[in-house]
Amino acid sequence: MDKPKKKVVKKKKDEEKGEDEEKGKDEEKDEKKDEKKDERAEALRTCGWRMRTFIISFILGVCCAVTGTCTLYIPGLGLGPFALLYTAGNVCCLFSITALIGPKNQLMTMFAKERAVATVFLLICLVLTLVSAIQWNNSILALVFCVIQFLAFLWYKHFITPS
């Protein structure tokens, strides 16, 4: 008579053990869901920060370029302030892309085999524009480098933009 009682008790223990395992699995699933929610929330925060930084730096870049262009029409300023502001605007626009896709991806994209020449040419133009405006005080040369910088930026954008 003791044997059937042992079987019943054993069945109950096995059932409780199975319920505990199911509860443990449910808890693990809940933890994984919570982790995924946290990851999604972090991704959204990061995405939001990147978008805000992109928008702010892009608008700042456009404002610098437009302000620089406006300085061309102010008598007595010369081309130096234009060259400085225009170059600062282009640098801000480059930074805006970096904020959007991340610095590592930006550098990998900029110096990929098919884009490296355009990138180096653009960076050289940026530097030469600043040097001609600040160091050499040569406004005409700064203007020439600004035009070349504009063309280099178009060339660079042509290679960056997916086909």
Largest sheet, described in full? Answer: none
The coarse silhouette is: elongated
Work out the strand percent.
under 5%
- The number of helical runs is 5
As a whole number of angstroms, the C-alpha radius of gyration is: 31 Å
* Fraction of helical residues: over 70%
Q: Classify the secondary structure makeup into a structural class.
A: mainly alpha
Q: Separation of termini?
A: 83 Å
| Element order: H for helix, E for strand | HHHHH
For the secondary structure, the number of strands is 0
Low-confidence stretches: none
Mean pLDDT: 81
Task: Note down, in words, how this protein is organized.
This protein is mainly α and 163 residues long. It has a domain at 48-160. It contains five helices and no strands. It has helices at residues 2-71, 80-101, 103-110, 116-134, 139-160. Helix 1 (2-71) packs antiparallel against helix 2 and helix 4 packs antiparallel against helix 5. The longest helix is centred in the first third of the chain and has 70 residues, at 2-71. The radius of gyration is 31 Å and the shape is elongated. It starts with a helix and ends with a helix. The model has no long low-confidence stretch (mean pLDDT 81).
